[in-house]
Design a protein that fits this description.
By secondary structure, the chain is mostly helical. It has a domain of 34 residues. Helix content is 68%, strand content 0%. The chain contains one helix and no strands. The longest helix is centred in the middle third of the chain and has 50 residues. It starts with a helix and ends in a 22-residue tail after the last helix. The relative contact order is 0.05. The model has no long low-confidence stretch (mean pLDDT 79).
C-alpha cells in the first residue's frame, strides 16, 4: 500500500510539464486569434462611426511610395 502512495505522489510531479505545455499552446493559439478579433472589431467600429458621421472617411493612399518633397529623377 505504501508503494502505491509513493508512485501516485511521484506521478503528480510529472504532470507539471504537461500543464505548462498546455498553457503555452493555449497562449500561442489565443494571441493571434485575439489580435484578429480586435482588428475586426476596430474596423467595424470605424465603419459605424463613418456611417454615423462621427468620423471622416479614411483617405485612399495610392501606395506608390513616391514622396512629394523629393525631386523627380
Amino acid at each position: 500500500m505504501y508503494s502505491t502512495l509513493v508512485s501516485a505522489a511521484a506521478s503528480t510531479g510529472a504532470s507539471v510539464p504537461i500543464k505548462l505545455l498546455v498553457v503555452i499552446v493555449a497562449f500561442v493559439v489565443a494571441v493571434p486569434l485575439l489580435r484578429k478579433v480586435r482588428a475586426a472589431a476596430s474596423e467595424s467600429r470605424k465603419r459605424r462611426w463613418v456611417k454615423d458621421g462621427l468620423m471622416d472617411p479614411p483617405t485612399t493612399d495610392s501606395g506608390s511610395g513616391v514622396r512629394s518633397d523629393r525631386p523627380e529623377a
